[in-house]
């Protein structure tokens, strides 16, 4: 018998569908009255606590979801990602954002090459450059220190770094390091947003970071040209090389724009835009604001979760549990939306960041093989 081409055609999926009717008739009050159930639905890792006891699910539901994960070969798929297999079948690429925060002595390969040394070459370059700017050894065209940074990007080049920036503003060490400095993000092509971003800033003390892998992204390059004109009209065309740097892989276009290619910071085609906050896209502007040592702690925290995701058993694996509950809520219970409600003001930009990460990743109408899906696959 041929293997079903869609997960919804398996007996495991059908078993969950049959189980659904009983759960729908069970009130959450009844589920919450089961102390043993509630205790089994609490997981902790590295001071991150997940309590999913208020989900409309029983222990039997969770066990059936584990079986569904096994049916989908989830563990093998996780391993394939970490092994650098081309799981991005559309573009025939590895998906290795985990390599962006791997320790220096790690080995993570794409197409037979360990990419971790390349990652650390860029991180070392960011550390050196950001320390020179912050110490005042790298100055602007008129000899003044560069205290203000405008990061120009869009989508994943903007939402992830903005989230981390907002969170770090409340961290004692980070806020101390940022004293007297300012970091702003420009993503909207509306001239009002550009005017608002440069309002109160002096071109003599401003550094612009242009984030575009190809250096052809229309919205980003329009804003970059606007800021180039702002700098060159005040300080002369030659000042651009001292006041603008790039996160890009297209060095010819970077140089043609007026930016010194030596001041271009690379990232790779195995980094999806929405996962790029741990690349130079986020690390460069955040290091300029807070210092590399602070941002390195953020990378270490991300690596800690990467290890947890790749090695923890499913019943203790927070990312896997959240993913399975998402499948249960959307594809079975039929709930179309998820609310992300940070009670900590430091996390106020988490929702728009996760909105893009989740919806762009999971909001598909077809399977990875291009077959139309007969069920909902992602939340709003």
UniProtKB/TrEMBL annotation:
Single biological process term from Gene Ontology: glucose 6-phosphate metabolic process
Record flagged with keyword Hydrolase: no
Stored CDD domains: SIS_PGI_1
Subcellular location: Cytoplasm
Pathway info: Carbohydrate degradation; glycolysis; D-glyceraldehyde 3-phosphate and glycerone phosphate from D-glucose: step 2/4
SUPFAM superfamilies for this protein: SIS domain (SSF53697)
Keywords, in A-Z order: Cytoplasm, Gluconeogenesis, Glycolysis, Isomerase
EC number: 5.3.1.9
Keyword Cytoplasm: yes
InterPro entries: G6P_Isomerase, Phosphoglucose_isomerase_CS, SIS_dom_sf, SIS_PGI_1
Reactions catalysed according to its record: alpha-D-glucose 6-phosphate = beta-D-fructose 6-phosphate
Cellular component terms per the entry's GO annotation: cytosol
Domain of life, per lineage: Eukaryota
GO-annotated molecular function: carbohydrate derivative binding; glucose-6-phosphate isomerase activity; monosaccharide binding
Main EC class the enzyme belongs to: isomerase
Family, per entry: Belongs to the GPI family.
The name this protein goes by in its record: Glucose-6-phosphate isomerase
Organism: Clarkia unguiculata (Elegant clarkia)
Source taxonomy: Eukaryota, Viridiplantae, Streptophyta, Embryophyta, Tracheophyta
Gene (UniProt): pgiC2
């Amino acid at each position: 018998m041929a293997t079903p081409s869609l997960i919804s055609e398996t007996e495991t999926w059908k078993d969950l569908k049959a189980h659904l009717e009983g759960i729908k008739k069970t009130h959450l009050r009844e589920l919450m009255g089961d102390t043993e159930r509630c205790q089994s639905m609490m997981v902790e890792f590295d001071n991150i606590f997940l309590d999913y006891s208020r989900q409309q699910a029983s222990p039997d539901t969770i066990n059936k979801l584990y079986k569904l994960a096994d049916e989908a070969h989830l563990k093998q798929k996780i391993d394939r990602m970490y092994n650098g297999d081309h799981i991005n079948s559309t573009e025939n690429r590895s998906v290795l954002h985990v390599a962006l925060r791997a320790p220096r002595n790690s080995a993570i390969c794409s197409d037979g090459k360990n990419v971790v040394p390349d990652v650390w070459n860029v991180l070392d370059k960011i550390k050196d450059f950001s320390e020179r700017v912050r110490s005042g050894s790298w100055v602007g065209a008129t000899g003044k220190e560069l205290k203000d940074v405008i990061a120009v990007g869009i989508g994943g080049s903007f939402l992830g770094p903005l989230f981390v920036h907002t969170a770090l503003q409340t961290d004692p060490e980070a806020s101390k390091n940022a004293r007297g400095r300012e970091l702003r993000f420009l993503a909207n092509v509306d001239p009002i947003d550009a005017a608002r971003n440069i309002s109160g800033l002096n071109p003599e003390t401003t550094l612009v970071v242009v984030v575009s892998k190809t250096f052809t992204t229309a919205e980003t390059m329009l804003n970059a040209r606007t800021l180039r004109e702002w700098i060159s009209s005040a300080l002369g065309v030659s000042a651009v090389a001292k006041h603008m740097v790039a996160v890009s892989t297209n060095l010819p276009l970077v140089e043609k724009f007026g930016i010194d290619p030596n001041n271009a910071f690379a990232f790779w085609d195995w980094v999806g835009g929405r996962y790029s906050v741990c690349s130079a896209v986020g690390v460069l502007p955040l290091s300029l604001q807070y210092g590399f040592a602070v941002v390195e702690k953020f990378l270490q925290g991300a690596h800690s979760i990467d290890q947890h995701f790749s090695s923890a058993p499913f019943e203790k694996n927070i990312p896997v549990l959240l993913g399975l509950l998402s499948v249960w809520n959307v594809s079975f219970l039929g709930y179309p939306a998820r609310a992300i409600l940070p009670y900590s003001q430091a996390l106020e930009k988490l929702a728009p960041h996760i909105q893009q990460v989740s919806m762009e990743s999971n909001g598909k109408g077809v399977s990875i093989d291009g077959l139309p899906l007969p069920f909902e696959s992602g939340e709003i």
